[in-house]
Each structure stands twice: as C-alpha cells, then as structure tokens.
Amino acid sequence: MQRNRKIIFLDIDGTLTQPGSNEPPQSAVWAIAQARKAGHLVFLCTGRNYGMLSPLLAYGFDGIVASSGGYIECGGRCIYDCPMTEQQKQTAMDVLQRNGVFRTIECREGSYTDEGLKEFLKNHAQEGSNSELLRWREQIEKSLNILPMKAYGGQPVYKIVIMSLSEKSLEEPRALLSPDFTFCIQDAAMGGLINGEIVNRRFDKGKGIERACRELGISLDDTIAFGDSMNDKEMLQTAGLGICMENGSAAMKELADEVCPSVAEHGIREAFFKHHLI
Q1: Residues 72-106: pLDDT tens digits?
Q2: Which of 59, 137, 191, 221 is least surrounded by CB atoms within 10 angstroms?
Q3: How far apart are CA 22 and CA 144, in angstroms?
C-alpha cells in the first residue's frame, strides 16, 4: 500500500448530499474521482440501507458502511452483515407501537414506514411547522423509496428510525430495549416531534470504520471521516481525522476535529484540497 494513502468515509444526508437527496454536488463527485485517482479509498458511511444507495453507487466508491454499520462491503464483497434477531425485532416493534412511537424499519433492500405518521401530520398541518414536516416527509419517502408498513414482508431489519410525540412515550422503549440497542436522538424535529433511531449495540458507524480498516490492513490514523449529525458521533470520534460540515449540528461541531464548509458551499471538495487528497 502506498505511503500516505488514506481511506475516506463519507456520510450521505447533510454531508455528501442535501438531506434525502440522491444527487451530490458536482464538486463532490469530481473530488471523489480525483481522490481515488490519486490512490485514496473512498467509502460511503451512512445510516441508509443498502437498497437506498444504488443511485449514489453509480458515482464510484471503494466500499460501503450501510445501516449505521450493520452491513459492510469492501470492494463489492460483504464482510459484515448483522440484522436484528427475530425476537429483538418483534420486541422493539411491539413496545414502540404500544407507546405511540412512529416507526420506519430499514431492511437490506427496502424501508417501510407507519402510515400513521403522515395521517397525524395531515391532521395537525395547521400547527406551526407540521405542514413543512409533512412535505419533507413525503419527499423523503418518495426520493428514498420508503414504502408503507403494510407492504413489509417480514425481511430482516437492521435498524428502526423513530418519531415520537414526547420524551415520555420513549420511557418504556428505552427501559426495555436499552440492553440491546442505543437510542440516537437528533435535535428536535420540525413540528415538535422527537426524531431518532434505534441501533443494535453490536455495531455503529465507528465500529464499521474499524471493521473496514481491519479488512484492508489500514491504520485508523490514515482515516478521515465526514459527517453532520449525532448519528455520526462514533464515526468522527473513531477516525484519525473527524470533520463536521458547517451545516451540521452544534454538538457535532464541538466533537469534530475541524469544520469544513457546508454541502451547498462545496465542503467536500474544499476539505479534500485542504488535506492534499487531491
């Protein structure tokens, strides 16, 4: 392996693309191609499942860490695959539903969401930013091909994205599920809803970076990670250099080693230039 060769891990939503989009800016596409041409490796490292990645894989990557670390490929070969057990899945689904928590389950190829969330938002669309959240949610489901829960056929589940009306509705789920799962809660969502995801403690994006590096024989000192939100925490802390986007959360900016310009301001390209990756 050439000296100074780096492995770069890129979050997608809010980092490589605008949230929910499958179209990175041309500046980022160019920078990734140039970095790979220079001999560096570039991975996607994302909470999205494998099925959501096909539009982006066309741009060319050396590997993927998908489902927040639950599914990993290096050079087109799967090196890690860890869905929930059937019992874990059923326990989580039942306690969330019992407490009125809206669920979006992510399988390897597909995602399925409780239709009750959109119904709730439609019924409260006149309240503050709920109408904006409804439009955002409908666009996310369309662009990422998220289907209604009734279409779910029992496939293995890697993680569950949640939206809750209050912290109180998460008390029982936390108590019951915390031995096996971490609750990654983002900043308050539009409309006052609490937004987050439930991820198996056996993996996260940071562990995904470690697994990929072991497979490739690359030191963590030679890794650079880019993210923007709290589900990137372990990823930025694990990498040799953790970079947060300017459009990222305040908490992530505090944790990161440095901050680069936003997605809209060609942050990926500018950071690649700064660190002599291109």
Answers
A1: 999 999 999 999 999 999 999 999 999 999 999 99
A2: 221
A3: 8
Q: Which of 201, 216, 183, 233 is closest to 45 using CA atoms?
A: 233
Residue 63 structure tokens: 């590997």
Total Cβ atoms within 10 A of residue 179: 7
Distances (CA, A) of 210 to 7, 78, 116, 166, 217: 11, 15, 38, 35, 10
The amino acid at residue 169 is: S
Per-position DSSP letters for 155-170, written without gaps between them: ----EEEEEES-SGGG
Name the pTM for this structure. 0.87
Amino acid identity at 152: Y
Sign of the Cα torsion 209, 107, 245, 58 reads: positive
Average pLDDT, the chain: 89
Residues of the chain with confidence (pLDDT) below 70: 1-3, 121, 124-141, 143, 187-192
Q: SS3 sequence, 201-258?
A: CCCCHHHHHHHHHHHHCCCHHHEEEEECCHHHHHHHHHCCEEEEECCCCHHHHHHCCE
3-state secondary structure (DSSP) of residue 265: coil
**What angle, rounded to 10 degrees, do the helices at 130-143 and 116-123 form?**
150
